[in-house]
Amino acid sequence: MTACKNEQLFNPDIRLATLDDLTALVALEELAFNYDRLSRRSFRRAIMSDGSVLLIAVGAQGLLGYALLHLRQGTRLARLYSLAVASFARGFGIGIRLLKACEQKAINTGKTLLRLEVSALNQVAITLYQKMDYREFGYYHAYYEDQSDAIRMQKPLRHMSVEQSSHPLPWLAQRTPFTCGPVSLQMVLSAFNPNYQATPEDELDIWREATTIFMTAGHGGCHPMGLALAAQKRGLSAKVWLSQEGPLFVDSVRDQLKKAVIERVHYSFMKQCKTEDIPVHYSVMPLAQLITAFDSGALAIILISTFRMDGKKSPHWVVMSGYDEHCILVHDPDFEEKDPNQSPLDCQYMPIARDEFEKMSRFGQRRLQATVVLRAN
User: Fold this and answer.
1) What ranges make up the beta strands (E) of the chain?
2) CA geometry: angle at 327 spanning 326 and 333, to 5°?
3) Dihedral sign, Cα of residue 171, residue 132, residue 113, residue 125
4) What is each CA distance from 138 to 39, 115, 135, 189, in whole angstroms?
5) Quick one: average pLDDT of 354-361?
6) Interatomic CA distance for residues 38 and 25, integer angstroms
7) Coiled coil where (predicted)?
8) HSE-up of 356 (CA within 13 Å, CB side)?
9) pLDDT by residue (tens digit) across 76-105?
10) What pTM was computed for the model?
11) Which of 97, 150, 195, 259 has the fewest CB atoms lying closer than 10 Å?
12) Which range, of 81-95, 261-275, 350-364, averages the lowest pLDDT?
């Protein structure tokens, strides 16, 4: 009988969790963790979500373990949010089976990089991840509820290159729905000048200096020339690449007065850029040229469409933070604090496949491409 039980522990059934598994999942969570526990509501949300995969290992004894995987839409990134194995099932390879199943799920959905965080005190888990070829790439102090530190680990999946080029870049979250451009600039300013203070006041000051005033609805977004002027005012050297001449974003509004205001702002920015000797190139900045600029120490703020990330056709600014053979890495200032599936860590060094990135970096009917390349003076 014991041999039969052990055999079932070694070869558990790995499957997707259903709502019928909720009670067992909550019970396992209570026993496995003293802090940062997932609630019944969180498990239910994970089971129902298209952006999450909740796998469980089941044997004759019941629930042996689970692994929760989050899939970041529009990117090649997957994140192992939590993994737990029942105490009586430890030592039988359940964690490895669940982790391998997560990796395969990530690969099946086109992901090429799997990341996770683990408590620096959890040596058993750290050893497991190292055995599975996960490598440390970050460390966060007092990350968990009990104030223990977290080690960030990642593993390339399939044929993704392990060689990445990246710059140390502080990550900041936008405090309003309309300040992605200013916060992207604040990240760059913080990278080039350790003494720069990224205050909420300066976030709004940059927006006031760089805004187009109007967009489709609500507050206006930032114009690339406006961001370049704000950057140069704060001590950086700026260059702008635009795929079109003439006023930007006018197709996004119907009201003639709004169109007229956008046009006036555009021509005002053009005049100011000429006065401040900020080069404006009316052409697409090729990806190879962007990477060359990055390698030479520049940082770029890039306009993208968020459609492939959230289904909304909104203009959005991000910062290029690195690249590898297959992907462009970005820092995204847009963090949904109310989204339990999202962590600030998911917004940093986000890998986006190069072909996908080139599609994302075109906005609107005119497929506008806008890049602001910044350097320290």
Assistant:
1) 13-16, 52-59, 62-71, 77-85, 113-119, 135-140, 150-156, 165-166, 236-242, 280-281, 299-305, 315-323, 327-331, 350-353, 370-376
2) 175
3) negative
4) 27, 11, 9, 22
5) 89
6) 9
7) none
8) 20
9) 889 999 999 999 999 899 999 999 999 999
10) 0.72
11) 195
12) 350-364
| Residue 331 CA from chain centroid, whole number | 6
152-210: per-residue pLDDT in tens? 999 988 654 446 688 889 999 999 999 999 999 999 999 999 999 999 999 999 999 99
Q: What's the CATH number of domain 2-159, 3.40.630.30, 3.30.450.40, 1.10.8.60, 3.40.718.10?
A: 3.40.630.30
Determine the Cα–Cα distance for residues 135 and 126; give it in Å rounded to an integer.
10
In angstroms, rounded to a whole number, what is the distance separating the alpha carbons of residues 191 and 170?
A: 6
Q: Looking at the DSSP assignment, which residues form a beta bridge with residue 28?
A: none
Kindly report the number of other CB atoms within 10 A of residue 179's CB atom. Answer: 25
Superfamily of domain 180-376 in CATH is: Cysteine proteinases (3.90.70.10)
Would you say 241 and 281 are in contact if contact means Cβ atoms under 8 Å apart? yes
What are the sequence ranges of the domains in the chain? 2-159, 180-376
> Who's near 261: CB < 8 A, 6+ residues apart?
213, 214
Q: Estimate to the nearest angstrom the gap between the alpha carbon of 150 and the chain centroid.
A: 18
Q: Does the structure show a pLDDT above 80 at 5?
A: no
Q: How far, in Å, are 218, 300, 305, 365 from residue 215 at the CA level? A: 7, 23, 14, 15
The one-letter amino acid code at 151 reads: I
